[in-house]
Specification:
It is a single chain. The chain has 271 residues and is an alpha/beta fold. The chain folds into two domains: 190 residues, Alpha-Beta Barrel (TIM Barrel), CATH 3.20.20; 57 residues, no CATH class. It is 42% helix and 18% strand. The chain contains eight helices and nine strands. The chain has an eight-stranded mixed β-barrel, surrounded by four helices. Helix 7 runs antiparallel to helix 8.
């Protein structure tokens, strides 16, 4: 079962109606100079109502992709659990205002630059079916947000895997995600440090606790290893404290204390 969201720009209120929504994309920037004047208020409002938050950039693809990406990053400052998207659209391919090959190169460079800057956030691409058809085998980052006209929510009619579907743009852009609200939130946090992923998160992501093969198995094993390492760290901390207490009672000076603790840590890490 999926969930519903919207994408907002300066055309929307600083406090839109969020009834029935689980997520939102908010336009942060366009080109090299435009910043949505309502972005900060809209993002704060979405967070207040516990929506999973995304930010997007509308490009002027005649510019440098990395320069526009840096402008976006300075403005949006995504937090852990936020996802970001390149709104890859807007140029009439027929009149070649920007050759399509250059648009594809822009997409690739923008995604690479933002992904490198935000290794713990999900970074993807929004496009319509015309753009998708012109670059069907292209890279779209961590997710594809597909826009269609006159299609039911969750039925974009494309063969490529997608995560978000913009299915209506009548009064406001309406979106559907093919994950549940809880699974979407877990996915949004999945690229953070291992400690951020709990067993409950893992069950939410793949639906059951003990996968036996493939990527889910690898993730499961990594989670088990992280848990084992945490237990070992707790045990080691107890030993270190006991050593510190013993040395303190004996009146050992600070240099000796540091040397003893360092020796203990070295032995444990090598074992």
């Amino acid at each position: 079962m999926g969930c519903y969201g919207q994408d907002w720009a300066s055309y929307q209120s600083p406090a839109p109606d969020v009834t029935g929504l689980s997520f939102v994309f908010v336009k942060a920037t366009e080109g090299l100079t435009y910043a949505n004047p309502r972005w900060a208020q809209q993002v704060a409002y979405a967070r207040l109502h516990k929506l999973t938050v995304g930010h997007y950039h509308y490009p002027h693809m005649g510019n440098s992709a990395t320069a526009e990406a840096d402008f976006f990053l300075r403005t949006a400052r995504p937090q852990p659990g936020d996802y970001v998207a390149l709104d890859w659209e807007g140029y009439d391919v027929a009149n070649r205002s920007v050759p399509f090959a250059a648009q594809v190169a822009y997409k690739k460079a923008f995604l690479a630059h933002v992904t490198a800057a935000l290794p713990h956030n999900q970074v993807g691409t929004y496009c319509n079916t015309d753009y998708l058809d012109r670059d069907p085998a292209g890279a779209y980052g961590d997710f594809l947000w597909i826009a269609t006209a006159n299609k039911a929510a969750g039925q974009p009619g494309i063969s490529r895997s997608w995560l978000f579907h913009q299915y209506s743009a009548s009064s406001v852009d309406r979106d559907y995600c093919n994950l549940s609200a809880d699974a979407l939130r877990a996915w949004a946090h999945a690229k953070e440090d291992d400690m951020a992923l709990t067993r409950d998160d893992a069950v939410t992501i793949w639906g059951y606790e003990n996968p036996t093969s493939g990527d889910k198995y690898d993730m499961h094993q990594a989670l088990k290893n992280a848990e084992a390492n945490s237990a070992e760290a707790a045990r080691l901390a107890t030993e270190v404290k006991a050593t510190v207490d013993h040395l303190a009672v004996g009146g050992v000076d600070l240099d000796a204390l540091a040397a003893k603790v360092a020796d203990l840590l070295s032995k444990r890490l090598q074992s």
